[in-house]
Design a protein that fits this description.
The complex is a heterodimer of chains A (about 525) and B (about 500). Chain A is mostly helical. Chain A is built from 20 helices and 4 strands. Chain A has a two-stranded antiparallel ribbon. Chain A has a two-stranded antiparallel ribbon with strand order 3-4. With about 500 residues, chain B is an all-alpha fold. Chain B has helices at about 5-25, 25-30, 35-60, 65-70, 75-100, 105-125, 130-150, 155-185, 190-200, 205-220, 230-235, 240-265, 270-295, 300-320, 320-350, 365-370, 370-385, 390-405, 410-435, 445-465, 465-485. In chain B, helix 3 (about 35-60) packs parallel to helix 6 (about 105-125). Classes of the chains: A mainly alpha (about 525), B mainly alpha (about 500). The interface of A and B includes residues 143 and 166 of A.
Chain lengths: ~525, ~500
Amino acid sequence: MDIGILNVVTYLPLLGAAFILFFFTDPKKIRYFATMVAVVDFIVSLFLWKYFDPTVGGDRIFQFRWTRDWIPSLGVKYDFGVDGIALLLIVMTTFMGAIAIWSSFTAIDYRQKEYYVLLLLLQTGMIGTFCALDFFLFYVFWEVMLVPMYFIIGIWGGARKLYAAIKFFLYTLAGSVLMLLSILALYFFNDGGIPFLHITGLGNGYSFSVLQYHEIGHLIPPTLQFWIFLGFFFGFAIKVPMFPFHTWLPDAHTEAPTAGSIILAAVLLKMGTYGFIRFALPILPSATKQLLPFIIGLSIVGIIYGALVTLVQKDMKKLIAYSSVSHLGFVMLGMFALNPMGLKGSVIQMINHGISTGALFLLVGIIYERRHSRMIADYGGLAKQMPMYATLFLIAALSSMGLPALNGFIGEFTILLGVANRNIWWAVFAAIGIVLGAAYLLWLYQRVFWGPLDNPANKNVRDLNRRELGLLVALVAVMVWIGIYPKPIFDLIDKPVEYVVRKVDPGYFNPAQAVRVAESK
Amino acid sequence: MTWNDVVFMLPEIILSIGASLLLIAPVVGWRARERSAKWAMLILLAITAASVIICSNVVENLPQTAAFSSMFALDGFAIFFKLLFVVAIAMIALLSDDFLRESRYSAWEYYSLLAFALVGMMFMASGIHLASIYIGLELMSLSSYILAGFFKNEEKSTEAAMKYFVLGTVSSAILLYGISLIYGVTGSLNLMTIAKAMSTIITNDALMFGIMLLGAGLCFKIAAVPFHVWTPDVYEGAPTPIAAFLSTASKGAAVAIFARIFYVGLHDFQLDWSNILATISALSMILGNLAAITQDNVKRMLAYSSIGHAGYVLLGILSLNAMGLRGVLIYTLVYVFANLGIWATVLMLRRHTYAGERVDDFDGLHQRAPFWAFAMVIFLLSLGGIPPTAGFIGKYFLFAAAVQSGFGWLAIIAVLMSAVSMFFYFRIVVAMYLKEGHEAEVAITPNLKLVAGVCLAITLLFGILPAPLINQATRSSNWVATRAAVLTHAGR
């Protein structure tokens, strides 16, 4: 029987969670077992990459398809499949999941069993979201992610954890229920239409198939597209988060335990950008173009505003949280350049942000565990006391600000290329954001690591232990790898990006257009 | 009346005889044997359920509208609701068992009243004639007035019963007045005849007024705004198992007649009444969910949340399409089981004192009863409509029906309010998981375990594999959907 490798990747963490729930009580065993499950899941996802054929284009870019009927009377199918973009995000999810679980060994000192069960459950929800090619199924996984994250913030979070947890939950839920309405509108348009609003349907029958929606996208009347896009926009923009829907993010990030912040930054925020690429752009091309100025505007405001707010933060964790607003603004900007270069940069930057910001959260978590303070003012001169820590922090910060030979550069440069191709002024704003990014990270570094070591509490701080070193070296290795040899990733996302651009801007690839673009260069 | 007619009504006849026997039992010397009351009740309910199934098979091929001069039908819709009610009442009997044993009141009378209420509810599910519907409704209502005040020495219980009775009878009178106006215009009380008469009427103020009064009466029974004010006080004051009864089974029965009357009888005037119902629905969802946020008493919180849920169910009724009708059936079932599960958990916490259960009482429940705390989370998620629980499937149908019928704005309110509802549902979750508990005693009796366990199984099972439930709802709503000529999608 074919059980489907995607099912294995998705449900392995769930199985692990159930196993822990029923068979383990010793916290030590639980955390080793949970790490083992996460690592095995990561290895399985690497096999996914190995057997994935990135050269297939057109409609067959979705591979490892596994389709079964789920609710036949509604046309709901259990439909799994990944293209290069989803595959990349899944590999990042399993990787960062393993890092997050491994990083929690000493940070979580109470209610360990529930903690690891919830983290593994969250892992299943996230991977399932990336695999789902049926809207109903997608929505189920999308919501399933919420509850474990709520508990992770709410139980193991900081001082204002209850507030942060419910704010995160309600914001995301409000966005996703509006998205549900958009899904329903698509569903009825695909079938019989909405007679009362004089919208004639296509009569294709009940279906939630994302691939089918990709085909019918250009048939949807512009007004309907506009409203459907708006629903998607709320669902995804809150998750990204785009300015002005970002206010939940600093709270959630700051209050969440380290592993929660890592997962939030690395994967949960990518759900929003992934949603735009997978659903909003290909299904609603005309609304995308109609709302393009609006979204570009919000992205640019997000980049600049996010960076400026980051600059004045006094709390390290909050600083990194706000920097996410700025970085995700880049991702959105690149995506809405609507050309292959911009989209590629956008996808790579999603991965980069996950790795770099994840690493920064991990680093802040490490120092917090030792000193129980996240305030920048409490530190200074740490470089003398913790040389290894300082070095790795520097690498992570440099990768986050886009230094060449590290991953951030590849993403930002590709985005700038794509954006400049569209409109040079957008690129100018983006460049300002990069400069500000360098400013807040270097200033943070300067205040924490250089200068005199004058706080006596910092005199006895230990440097990294072997586990922490292992975690960070793994992350830095990925940063360097993407920075020096990003070709495998570009290969992987080449065809999917082309697929999306063909849907959203069919004219882009026709010869006349190509000549014009070449000339304008 | 023929023998066939008797077969249609056999379950109700059996149940009425049984209920009378329960009433007589203490008189003939069984008063002391309180324990047997529960078993007698459960056996009676089992026989009733069996007879519903057998009779429905017998009458399957008979014309549905023939029984008792077209007053009584045993169609899929009726069977669905009857079986749901029997199961719900059985659960409420189980919830009541420990409660009654600790009180000084007679279990026999209590179960007898519950059984009579069930007779009324089953009548309502079958009624296709406003007179039979009204009789069923009154039988249920009168029994529930008494049940709400069953603890006659408790001040709160008496107060609740009094409020419920006065407002309930007024609403019944309004309902009756509406019925009489409809009768005056259409010349019939039979829903099919009313529908036929209405198809020839273009506009008629008296008829519209009648429909509005009828709607007002029904809105009182399902506790929709602005006819909801009784709900929090009655739920808070009534004995907890009776609050469970009022918020689940009794409400379900009112929903059943609401759907039947509007789908079968009044579908021709949809353009006129759907906007009124849409306003009521929107107000119920907004007010119910917002008011619930500030409640510290779990019973009052559930009362306000049940007002919100009445608003959701109205979505299914006013959209008047096959999706909506199926949604009403599915949502009622899902809501009943999630709610009964919650009431069972509430009863686990404090049974010794009669006063209201506070949200604080849930503090740290995950340490004292980890499994039931988890079950409670699932029930709350189901009420909030979060997948993969059954509540999501129910809400999905209602939202879809609203979108399909062009009530986009209402659907937007509905989804946003379901997000708001998670805020107060999660107050209980916060208490259970994120706060330290005081070492209060939890009394997890086998009865409560059984009820909560069954509810949990149903809520999760239909959330993950909803296909059987949806197919059943489709089959069950066929007859009503055909009458309302909204069958377009029902066959799929």
